[in-house]
Amino acid sequence: MTVRSAIVLAAGEGKRLRPLTEHRPKPMLPAATEPILAHVFDALIAAGISELTVVVGYGRNRVQSQFGPTYRDVPVAYVTQEKQLGSGHALAAAESTVSGSTLVVNGDQLVDRRIVEDVIDAHGETDDAAATIGTIQHRDVSEYGGVLLEPDDAGVSSRRVTEIVENPTDDRSYLLNAGVYALETRAFDTVRSANSRGGEHSLVDGLTALIDGDEPVRGVRSKGIWIDATYPWDLLEVADALLESDGGVESTTAASARIHERATIRGPVVIADDCVVGPGAVIGPNVCLGENVTVGSNVVCEHSVVDADTRIGPNATLVDCVTGRGVRIGAGSTVVGGPGDVHVGDRIHRNEGLGALIADRVRDGGGVTYAPGTIVGSNAVIGPGTTVSGTIDSETEVRS
Amino acid sequence: MCGIVGYVGSNDAIDVLLNGLSGLEYRGYDSAGVALANGTLAVHKREGELSALESALPTEQLRGHSIGIGHTRWSTHGPPSNLNAHPHTDGEGRVAVVHNGIIENYQSLRDELTADGVTFQSETDTEVVPHLIARALEEGMAPETAFRAAIDRIEGSYAVAAVFAGSETIHAARQASPLVLGIGDDGYYLASDAPAFIEYTDRVVYLEDGEFARLSPEAVVVTDSSGTVVEPSVETIEWDAEDAGKSGYDHYMLKEIHEQPTALRQCLRGRVDELTGTVTLEELDALESSSPVQFVACGTSYHAALFGATLLRDRGVPAQSFLASEYSTDRIPVDPSTLVVGVTQSGETADTMRALREANRAGAETVAVTNTVGSSAARECDHALYIRAGPEIGVAATKTFASQQVALTLLACRLSNGSCHGVIRALRDVPDQVQTVLDTSQATEIAAEYAESDAFFFIGRGYQYPVALEGALKLKEISYRHAEGFAAGELKHGPLALVTEETPVFALVTGDDEQARKTVSNVKEVEARDAPVVAVTDGRTDVERYADHVLEVPASNEIGAAVTANVQLQLLAYWVAHRLGRSIDKPRHLAKSVTVE
């Protein structure tokens, strides 16, 4: 039976992506210029899914108002998970909206259509699988879920899963759980009744319970693209990967954008609707300007993700920069570019390729210099002529 | 302000009609009914919302009927009741009629028919129509001739559809009330508004005033008043049926409040150029006159019109706004140099249409500022400026008000001289400022604190005066609480006597100019009477010192502040109504589009 419906899990904040997630959940962060969740929807629709159910929770207004009741002519239903009690709990909330075989997909990680198609095809190839998991080969498997498969079955693309291990540390040959599952109705029952750990119901625990109960859970290894942003500066790599890969994002300038004839665009770049680029500006390579971004005269912007409604004042320079929405970069401010050490809580991430991360609605008075690796929390105000470094909390004011 | 639907085709008519009526419920909902024609007529109607009709219908018995008409009613003549609900029939059950509009000469027709021995079942104006048709049938006329003869006799506004026992044809006519036909693969449709059948077809014909339509299983034939066949122009409409879904919100109103950033982007797209400081409104390319400007509008649209007139006056253009219902009877001087701008979301508001028709007659150039492509206002005015807000289902206007504010700002730029650079810059920042309010508003908490208050007062000056009026209207409409908006300076000339410690005063104080400072003084007057004060402010004055609570808006120019302050008051009204358990999307006694005067 072909899978036609999908449940997309988009209720979690993604705390490690703060300060960008202060007003919206991780699935709504920009991958190039569109939200991660839009890319997930695109992959699902390209793979033939014609019914979407989205589990929303944290920042759900943002998700609902962005996508509305249909996305690319596919009906979208919303189910609210009031408390974030794990993926299994989220699934239980959505269960009543679907019947028969259903795809379950994480809404906060980029997957391409090939992974989705591989899971749908593999699940359809065998008639006994209670669940089929999409997996890929990935070097960072220890940071995610590891899946162990039986040796090759003859003739079919999937193999039985013997074990699923969160954050595996041993050296067995794990495949990474890509967060794309096809589930039969009976798998839902097991996921719902699986014991909770610390009050959280995890989908993976449910799948483990299925395996322990000798229900066939199969895994398929896919060669499709899978990208996760763990930290906010990963949005730069996500954009790079999308700009450089087939089936990613094409270098484009929206028809409604206004680019001054004396501006220079060095591809690949994505310039979304309603953007304005002033004379003498040099944009690119590897720049994504979200909806309604304004770039002043003589701005230099390279390798940056600039989210919607941001204004960059004249003569500013942005290198390796990630901004949130509605940021004001003043005239002549400089984000000098990475690499730099990034401080998050008491952890230091050394030599990250981040110029600066400037969260939603930061106001910079102009002539500000951002040392490599600077993080500025949302609504912070930075006075003219200041040099900033390290981490600046949300809602604070910095004066020189 | 009713809605009518009709269907002829190969599907079960009852399903199409019920779907259609639910798509029109925003037009009124105190009773609903259907008539199916299959040899004999089966008529079912019920007082109350559509669900009351649905549960009373013998749906299975009605299967297999492929011709029918339906109606959802909002009372103008006679209270809501089963008898007053449409469709109406003649005594013998030969013809059933649905009607939207007002038959002005119904009393004389009723007297005439009563003298003839006709017994009326209802108190409605509509019922004269089936009896007129029946009398013509008795005289030996064929159904179509009888229908035309009846329509000839009635005066006023109408969209009428009739089905006959033993006939497979729907006859319809239009005069000054909206009527649109749908051309589908599985049949033909008619309705007051396209959402009634848009899930079946997006190909439509807008019937003109005075035209008749005949819908049969084979064809749709449109004729003019003399019976000559007219080749109708078939248009394709763009809104899709799913737009009507609530997308996870409890109410359309909350969904529409949250859609405002997107709606405003759509309103601005392609119309402003910050590089050159120019506003381009293609629809108004042929617009010639520029002043004086008279706005005509009703309700929320009138508040937008007040805002638009203030903007124009600020830019040196003489402008005034009028309540449309007063304008047409008020002998306002109009001459050919006057530009009359009608602001109407639906484009069908009867009072506004009447005023615009008066202006057309007086030779003024007219502009409709509307959300509805192909609406009466758009077609009858010389020009139409679309606000592009997308469909709005909640009866209380929210996103369309914000889009009207922005569209009228664009119009003001178009009509005045001088640079628009600053205005364009401010407008492009508005969608994100609205998003900021949506992300951070404390309106839920403030609603919880004050929901049970005796009355609510809203005060503002200048650009915030229309917002004060609109904030009060929104609260009245959906919470049924007493609320009034005042120009801040007027408070001490009377209304202050009403202010007590039980009446919260919402003060709109943005910017730091003289107007804002004067409003702060008015806030002090209120505070001295122990009234709770909620300041809606960008923090640029010290009003917070005198306020019990603050609803914060981003600092911006006066246009952005008027949009964002209003969003705070929309949320306040929504959450007050929510706490009080009101029927938010369909408040009592109100309809979305008021198509009677």
Can you tell me about this structure?
- Chain A has 2 domains: 5-227, Spore Coat Polysaccharide Biosynthesis Protein SpsA, Chain A; 253-398, 3 Solenoid (UDP N-Acetylglucosamine Acyltransferase, domain 1).
- Chain A has 7 helices and 39 strands.
- The mean pLDDT of chain A is 89.
- Chain B folds into 3 domains: 3-242, Glutamine Phosphoribosylpyrophosphate, subunit 1, domain 1 (4-Layer Sandwich); 255-437, Glucose-6-phosphate isomerase like protein, domain 1 (Rossmann fold), CATH 3.40.50.10490; 441-597, Rossmann fold, CATH 3.40.50.10490.
- The interface between A and B is medium-sized, with 36 and 31 residues.
* Cα shape of chain B: globular
Q: What is the CATH superfamily classification of the largest domain in chain A?
A: Spore Coat Polysaccharide Biosynthesis Protein SpsA, Chain A
Q: What proportion strand of chain B?
A: 15-25%
CATH topology title of the largest domain in chain A: Spore Coat Polysaccharide Biosynthesis Protein SpsA, Chain A
Helical amount among residues of chain B, as a percent range?
A: 25-40%
Task: Compute the number of strand runs of chain A.
Answer: 39
Q: Most extensive chain contact? A: A-B, 36 and 31 residues
**Largest sheet features of chain A:** 8 strands, parallel
Low-confidence stretches of chain B: 240-244
| CA-atom Rg of chain B in angstroms | 25 Å
Which CATH top level class of the largest domain in chain A fits? Answer: Alpha Beta
**Backbone structural class of chain B:** alpha/beta
Total helices of chain B: the number is 17
**What is the averaged pLDDT score of chain B?**
90
Q: Round the Cα radius of gyration of chain A to an integer and report it.
A: 22 Å
Organism (chain B): Natronorubrum texcoconense
Subcellular location (chain B): Cytoplasm
Subunit structure (chain B): Homodimer.
Catalytic activity (chain B): D-fructose 6-phosphate + L-glutamine = D-glucosamine 6-phosphate + L-glutamate
